[in-house]
Amino acid sequence: MADVPPERRHGGGGRTTLPPPGRGPLPPPPPSRMRFEPVEREKTCPLLLRVFTKVGGHHSKEEFAIRGKEPKDEVQIYTWKDANLRELTDLVKEVSPEARRRDAKLSFAFVYPDKTGRFVVREVGRTFSYGNGRRLDDAKTLAELSFQIGDYLDVAIQ
Predict the structure, then answer these.
(1) What pTM was computed for the model?
(2) Phi, psi of 90, rounded to the nearest 5 degrees
């Protein structure tokens, strides 16, 4: 979680302090990777994910600055927080001919307002249109990447 900005971290977020010498055991080391339980998709209502695609690169944060004037190339997807980037890649391929190219690479970024209300575009992972054994971030889920309901997903197709 070192690459997740402090304002986006979930959980304790506080500082771990060591006890004074001779006073009890040391705290346990932090887990190497947070584990999230899979969602029971049959019983859990999906969330609306607003996805913006662009060939060549990500949209700029300025393109999201005015509410209601977001980029026009939007696709709305209903999904769950345990959806991984491979699932999202396959969904983007259904609506974007450029993403179906055999050599296409997809870069995923979350778009959200920071503490001051200005939008941030933060890259969270990359996939290939067709795996062919070259798995990058395919298995990363929205939850593992600190997605919060209301964030946008920006997908650069290269």
Answers:
(1) 0.75
(2) -65, -35
